[in-house]
Amino acid sequence: MISLQEELEQLENEITKVNDIDWTDINEYTRWIDWMPHWLGKFWKRDLVVLAGYPSCWKTEFTFFLAKKNADIWNKTLYISLELKPQDLFTRIARKRAWVSKLNFQNKQNISNEQFDIIDKEYKWLQNQKNIKVLSYKKSPNVNEIINTMEKYRKMWYDLFFIDNLWKIQWDQNESIRFPIITSKLQDYKNDKNICIWLLHHLSKPTKQNQYQPWWISWIRWSQKIIDNSSLIFELYRNLDPDDPIEDKNKVDLILYKDTIDWAVWTVSLRFEKSNYFIYNNK
Q1: CA distances (Å), 242 to each of 19, 62, 249, 270, in order?
Q2: pLDDT at residue 79 above 70?
């Protein structure tokens, strides 16, 4: 039986160990973006981040913006695309950063020399980037196959992962438990391996009168288990109303609906210019 004095000494030793933690060794994924830590906090390892939004809300472009910023500071990123092959994804991102429509790109019309240069430069950068690896599958994988792929790259020092998107993860069991099981497995994996995962989720386009609304209005469509399993939940909301002015199409709202302890914390309005996002308003 130890004495009270010995017990106090042991406690002091434990306190010293805590105080000696090198906090600079904790990896955060937003330290390079001036506005993001202030408005939205910092993304850490062991986060499962859900980014939701309608199709054409630039979820892919925004996550590649994050991946590119990570690559600049040598955080290795694996981007798992379940919709496009790598070359198609690079082409899409490159033309969008040059503000070239899909139709004009396919027809090779109404494209300036400057835009051609941007597309060529951006495509080559994405193709040759050592710290960003883009993978696709011949057929839609299940969540266990995705985890096996992430584990392969984690052993090569990759620790930031993007999965695009939740709907494309194969499932052949009871549909009612699909999303809860997938997110539960991803949550267990990121906790066990100390990694950060971004999971993109496509919301269905509205069917009545082009009424695009932020996800907050329709969040009950989600399973509560998905919400419980996520560290952070964002929506990237872009006004897609065809009747609105074209100059509004490069503006998006990044809405934080959940972090570990809070709900509906911030809305940051962003302006997209080529390969960067800038704040133009906050709420």
Answers
A1: 56, 22, 10, 20
A2: yes
Q: What are the tokens at 178? A: 């699909």
Q: Which H or E run includes 134?
A: strand 132-135
Q: Quote the CA–CA distance of 119 and 103 in Å, as a whole number.
A: 15
CB 61 within 8 A of CB 68: no
pLDDT score of 64 more than 90: no
Q: Nearest to residue 27, comparing CAs of 47, 8, 12, 52?
A: 47
Pairing mode, strands 251-258 and 263-273: antiparallel
Q: What is the DSSP letter of 166?
A: G
Beta strands in 29-93 (DSSP E): 48-53, 77-81
Residue type at 126?
L
CATH number for the region 28-83+128-282 comes to 3.40.50.300
pTM of the model as a whole: 0.79
- In this predicted structure, the answer to whether residue 132 has a pLDDT above a threshold of 70 is yes
* 146 close to 80: Cβ distance less than 8 angstroms: yes
Amino acid identity, position 22:
D
Cross-strand partners of 266: 256
Q: Which of 154, 219, 222 is nearest to 183 (CA)?
A: 222
Q: Are residues 98 and 118 in contact, defined by beta-carbon separation less than 8 angstroms?
A: yes
Q: Give the DSSP H/E element, type plus range, for residue 105.
A: helix 102-107
Q: Which region, left, alpha or beta, applies to residue 221 given φ > 0 means left and ψ of -120 to 50 means alpha?
A: alpha
